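sry for the spam today, last one i promise. struct tokens for design, 291 residues
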């Protein structure tokens, strides 16, 4: 909150999910968040959305962003496991301005994992990374978490058009199938497909402007992705960057997919493949047992 205050942010839209009753200590954590919001209420213009039940990392985030864009035309979205670095807000703000009318740009991301990108280059990728990002209401409106209308062949053609290695192609096909079967409590997987359907790419910095924190034992999806914790944000002179479309650098979609998803690992592919053919109720019972 102090970082936002010192960065000149004054308008905050804060969505607080309800605690999961079976998770020890989560009720207290939610109350702590409410106390922090109250503490800073006189220093920001704050609007809050308080859930009456736990909506989870899928519908909870999706409905919160819907609420956000009922109030604003464009903005920056930061989840609780993302710590913005210096330069992140400025990069997003300038990107929102530069690409406001360019409908080929789906959003501005604060993350970029291709180390070969020159440090003075704004880049783009077809692999959406939403750990600290910004977008416009007109890009979000129309998005639906239900992706059943996009059949296998359409998904296959979309992934093939990005020229990913066959293992990553298989990974995304399985990922979308799990989301379609509601065996993933997610929204960003569907957001990825939605952007591909519209042939939209995301704008990225030359390195990381976000410190991703969701890699500990209480993380919802990425508790085992410890390599993400080792990535340090860069120092970036945003004012010196060239945002013109003709000078954008194409980041490696393959490297970004591998860094974010671990896409293509044989064990992960096998686990996903098996999960698809396990009935949904049995799937969640087994997953709960092994946690």
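last one done:
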């Amino acid at each position: 909150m102090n970082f936002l205050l010192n960065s000149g942010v004054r308008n905050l839209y804060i969505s607080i999910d309800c605690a999961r009753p079976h998770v020890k200590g989560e009720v207290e954590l939610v109350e702590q968040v409410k106390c922090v919001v109250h503490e800073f209420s006189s220093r920001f213009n704050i609007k809050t959305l308080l859930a009456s039940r736990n909506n989870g990392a899928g519908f909870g985030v999706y409905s919160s962003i819907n609420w956000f864009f009922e109030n604003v035309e464009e903005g920056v979205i930061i989840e609780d496991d993302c710590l913005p670095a210096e330069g992140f807000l400025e990069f997003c703000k300038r990107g929102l301005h530069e690409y406001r009318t360019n409908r080929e740009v789906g959003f501005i991301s604060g993350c970029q994992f291709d180390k070969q990108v020159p440090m003075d280059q704004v880049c783009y990728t077809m692999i959406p990374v939403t750990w600290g990002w910004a977008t416009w209401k007109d890009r979000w409106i129309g998005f639906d978490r239900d992706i059943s209308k996009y059949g296998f062949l359409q998904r296959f053609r979309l992934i093939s058009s990005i020229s990913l290695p066959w293992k990553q192609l298989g990974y995304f096909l399985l990922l979308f199938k799990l989301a379609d079967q509601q065996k993933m409590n997610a929204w960003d997987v569907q957001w990825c497909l939605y952007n591909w359907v519209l042939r939209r790419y995301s704008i990225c910095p030359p390195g990381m402007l976000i410190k991703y924190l969701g890699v500990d034992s209480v993380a919802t999806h990425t508790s085992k992705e410890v390599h993400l914790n080792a990535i340090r944000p860069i120092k970036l002179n945003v004012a010196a960057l060239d945002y013109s479309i003709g000078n954008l650098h194409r980041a490696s979609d393959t490297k970004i997919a591998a860094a974010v998803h671990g896409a293509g690992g044989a064990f992960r592919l096998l686990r996903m493949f098996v999960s698809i053919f396990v009935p949904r109720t049995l799937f969640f019972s087994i997953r709960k047992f092994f946690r």
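Residues 1-54 form one domain. ok im logging off now
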